[in-house]
Amino acid sequence: MEMDNQFARSSTGYLDDTDICNRIAEARHGIEDVRPFVWQGELYGIGAGYSLRPDGTVLNTQILVKFDADTVRHVETFQSPAAPGQTEKNWIPLVYNDELLLVYQVYPTIIYRYTQPGLELLPRHPADQAHSSKEILRGSSNFIEYDGHYIAVAHYPPMWVYEKRYYQHVFIAFDRDLRLIDISEPFFFFRPGIEFVLSLLRDGDTLLISVGSGDRYGSVLVMPIADLHSHLLLRAPSC
Q1: Which residues form the domain of 22?
Q2: How many other C-beta atoms lie within 10 A of the C-beta of residue 173?
Q3: Residues 34 and 146 in one domain
Q4: Could you report how far apart the first and last alpha carbons of the chain are, in Å?
Q5: Nearest C-alpha neighbor of 19 from the set 8, 30, 9
Q6: Residue 167 belongs to a domain
Q7: What is the distance of C-alpha 92 from the center of its chain?
Q8: Domain tally, the chain
Q9: Distance of CA 150 to CAs 19, 33, 48, 227, 234, Å?
Q10: Do both 134 and 79 map to the same domain?
Q11: Residues 191, 81 share a domain
C-alpha cells in the first residue's frame, strides 16, 4: 500500500510470494511478520516462514527476503541456532557498518552477523548482560540511527491475565559498540492486549511507528523523534 504525506491511501497492490511458498519448505504456507529494512541501497525483509507440521502445530523459521518490485525473492533460510526444529520469530535487522546483523535477543544480548551464507555469533562483553532488566527481551521493530545510538522497540514475553494475552513494549538503545545502554519503562500503545511493532522509520524530525493491534488492525503512529529523550537516557539533542 502506498500512502501520501497525510497517510491517505493512494494505491494498493499485492506482493507475490508464490515462488517462496513453492520452493521453500519452511514457508510452504506463507511468510509473516516481515520487518523491512534497507541494506546496500535495496529493500530487504526478515520474516517468519509459516509451515504446518503433520501434528497441526506451526513451525516458524526466520527467512531473509528481498523485494524486487512486486515480487518477494528468497535470499536465505536460517535454521534455529538454539536447537534443530525450534520455532524462531522476532529477529531484528540492524545494518551496522554496511554489514547485516540480526539481533536474536535484546536482553541478554545475542547478535549474529550474516556471513552470506550463514551466521556468525558476535562475542559479547560481560558488562552487556549487567542490566537491571530481569526478563528476556525479544525483538519487535528494526533499528534506526538517532543521535549516536541505535534505537528500536522491543517487547517482553506475553503476560496472561484471565486467559488473555498482553504484550508490553519498551524503547531500547544500543551504543556504537552495540552495547545495550538503556531500556525505557514498559508501555502499551493503545490498550492492554496483543500489539505488535514491525517497523520504525525516521522522516526528518518525525518517527513513524507501524503497529498491529489484536491481530486485526494496522496503524501508523506519528511521534516527534526528540520525544525519545523522555523515554531513554540519551544525550541532549544536537544543535
Answers
A1: 1-89
A2: 23
A3: no
A4: 36
A5: 30
A6: yes
A7: 4
A8: 2
A9: 34, 21, 23, 15, 11
A10: no
A11: no
The alpha carbons of the chain give a radius of gyration, in whole angstroms, of: 18
Shared domain for 138 and 83, answered yes or no, is no
The answer to whether residue 20 sits within a structural domain is: yes
Alpha carbon distance 11, 75 (integer Å):
27
Q: Which of 48-62, 78-92, 145-159, 224-238 has the lowest mean pLDDT?
A: 224-238
Q: Does a structural domain hold residue 94?
A: no
C-alpha to C-alpha distances, 175 to 150, 151, 158, nearest whole angstrom: 6, 9, 27
Q: How far is CA 170 from CA 137, 163, 185, 239, in A?
A: 9, 23, 6, 27
pTM assigned to the model = 0.90
Question: What's the grid cell of residue 190?
Answer: 493503545
- Kindly tell me the burial class for residue 102, based on how many C-beta atoms sit within 10 Å of its own C-beta (0-12, 13-18, 19 or more): buried
pLDDT digits (tens, 9 = 90+) for 33-69: 999 999 999 999 999 999 999 999 999 999 999 999 8
Dist CA 150 CA 1 (whole Å): 27
